[in-house]
What we know:
Number of helices of chain A: 7
Shape of chain A: globular
Mean pLDDT of chain A: 84
Strand content of chain A: under 5%
Oligomer: homotrimer
Number of domains of chain A: 1
Largest sheet of chain A: none
Distance between the termini of chain A: 52 Å
Radius of gyration of chain A: 16 Å
Order of helices and strands of chain A: HHHHHHH
Structural class of chain A: mainly alpha
Largest interface: A-B, 27 and 27 residues
Amino acid sequence: MITFDLFTTIDALGTFAFAVSGATAAIRSRYDIFGILVLAFVTAIGGGTTRDLLIGNTPVNWLTDTLTIWSIVAGFLFGLLLHRKIGKWEGWFFFFDAVGLGVFTVTGVQIGLQAGMGIGISVALGAVTGCFGGVIRDVLAATKPLIFRKEIYASASVIGGLLYIMIVEFGESIIVAQITAIAAVLFIRFIAVHYKLELPKIN
Amino acid sequence: MITFDLFTTIDALGTFAFAVSGATAAIRSRYDIFGILVLAFVTAIGGGTTRDLLIGNTPVNWLTDTLTIWSIVAGFLFGLLLHRKIGKWEGWFFFFDAVGLGVFTVTGVQIGLQAGMGIGISVALGAVTGCFGGVIRDVLAATKPLIFRKEIYASASVIGGLLYIMIVEFGESIIVAQITAIAAVLFIRFIAVHYKLELPKIN
Amino acid sequence: MITFDLFTTIDALGTFAFAVSGATAAIRSRYDIFGILVLAFVTAIGGGTTRDLLIGNTPVNWLTDTLTIWSIVAGFLFGLLLHRKIGKWEGWFFFFDAVGLGVFTVTGVQIGLQAGMGIGISVALGAVTGCFGGVIRDVLAATKPLIFRKEIYASASVIGGLLYIMIVEFGESIIVAQITAIAAVLFIRFIAVHYKLELPKIN
């Protein structure tokens, strides 16, 4: 079961990365230790929880998932102890965050398909899983949600989700689809940030 | 089934109108194309989704409702292409939005009654269905929810919901109750906006 | 059933106090009568509703709980009529709010344990029940959630929840655990506010 373990490990890394980004946002908003912990938590589980509530998957999964809890606590502590050096670590955070986006996208698409949803809705559930934690983080930090304004983010998730479904439809194994979709999200995010690509705005 | 089709058509118009208002709010907040789409979506489905989550109606209905999805996409495109001319279209938007408020109120009350709720709670669920999409829209656009401050809006929904229940109790057909309640919401909204009526504030 | 009645009475007082705090926040944000009612409602039921949604306890309990509804209406009217004198009543509000925090913490922990959750998650569900109504209140009032910044609040809930579980584990009766946990939350809140204790922030 090496493939499953690989995916579990990547999933935990994604959770960890999202927790770090939540902790960082809370520190910037001058929240206390508790607020930092809550934002780490909410950022990491917000997307999956929203998806689970929408499709009626309750109790939501993190209530019984110890690895998720510890990944969040680790992300919280990491954000807390190293926030001053975050500038130096920026490349790592970008990488973790993009991996998390890719993994959560794939998880969301898979769960949507398993729940009998159509392709469009499953891709949307993938994007909700990947992106909504960050939206809740920004609402609780009382800032305009970044995702609606910054470089291509949700679009990377949508493309990754479509790719996953196409590859599975073509008869490839789940693991090939997973790795390809995650790699595509990573690649799109890298290109978008490197070249400062943004979706058009309306004047 | 002309009556059912009529209601379905009005429902789609209401969804469309709410999607336009979400898209407009996102454009004003300088969100990108994706943010505009998300706000159109969330405004249109936010009220019904909140209601469905509260009463345990999952998976929530838009996950399997193609007409809702396309109504939202149409509202998104309409808001995107015509936002500069929105001033000229204001009367139409007001009309669509009021129809949507009336239709969603009636839908919410009906679903509450079907789920075995009492009259007061069913009326409240109607108001949640009609109003909560706008509340979520304003939270995501990082502005104070308009509905808590502007001319009589939720009150129109509450009166429409009570009227619907009264007419059904008096033995009239569902369709009479639906049309009367929607007309009442339209009428109250028209009077409120025309005479700039507001609920009292506290000093 | 005097003990049950005692707990029901305290629970209603907690609901009342949270409704007052929601109404007050809405008045400060210059919301109209309807907005004040909604914030009273959302503050009082937000924590329990979030908990119920997470564990799949739907329809959420206040939909069929008349006492909760009337406690909220009473809190709304109280906040409305007496908001100018709130300065004089501050001690009472602090007391009510702390009782509510304690009671809701205990309710949340109990429901978590009944749903088969582990100790850590049950304590977290207690804190969600006690604190999340205030978080939603602050989001809807468009202010940074107070709880993430002010004196020890959620920590009091966490300590109360742990104490409740420890006492039940030691074989004491539920009612002893309930009263001790609520008293502990009250005591911690009193000490924290009296001595202006805060959790550390990160520079």
